[in-house]
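Sample pair:
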Amino acid sequence: MINKLTAKIQKTKAPIVVGLDPMLGYIPEHILRKSYGELGETLEGAADAIWQFNKAIVDAVWDLIPAVKPQIAMYEQFGIPGMAAFERTVAYCQEKDLVVIGDIKRGDIGSTSAAYAAGHIGKVTVGNHVFSPFHEDFVTVNPYLGTDGVKPFLDVCREEKKGLFLLVKTSNPSRGELQDRLIEGRPLYEWVGEKVARWGEELMGGSYSYIGAVVGATYPEMGRVLRRIMPKSYILVPGYGAQGGQGRDLVHFFNEDGLGAIVNSSRGIIAAYKQEQYASFGAEHFAEASRAAVEAMIADINGALEAK
């Protein structure tokens, strides 16, 4: 799957991923009104509105981008209907030939970790039948429980040729309480990056590994260090736009070949119509505003890489 992601980035010339992290506050009133009218102000109504919102955005941008990243919590909060909307979104994006990164941030050990891996990127057997329940192409995993928490995912990746993005350096305010702690003179996140690189050596695609890392865009000065530590790992970079990251801040996350990183924007794209520069589209044309935001993001990042 890493080979497909790389090929699609090269084809689209767009090293970006659209975060499908819908909140009801992002969804235009006309969509909510229709879903609630048919299904009531219920979990089912909310889940249908999410699905309709996602579908419109995917239809507007799929030809511009290589990948999407649905954040499972935004669906899970609406219970079983929300999880059905999550799977429906994954399936629809794959029908559009998009690579799907399931942002699930799982982190556990033993049989629990194995079950998460099977459910999201692997298979489960029921009697004489085999199913792929959520069937994402990549998932995000928290590696801070060590190898016990990661190995079950590595095993499934090896079998299914799917991939992982492991949390290395996050952008939340309290990340430094643990991630920045010095161990033998170096911050913990660097040691985790080295583990990611070693795990990745066992699961190589072509030029890049199936095992990547998540490093927040709010730390451009660390991009160069982590790029050196993990030369064969793709870096998933959240925090573009809405969290302050811009193309010029991100060039060190990329290798000299212009590959090796994929930059995520979520609300900056899916809620673009709420931003001043795209307000002229209006809520009725929210998807067109999202397309314009994608085009601007691609131009920004590619311009920065060309100037590198």
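The domain at 2-307 is CATH 3.20.20.70 (TIM Barrel).
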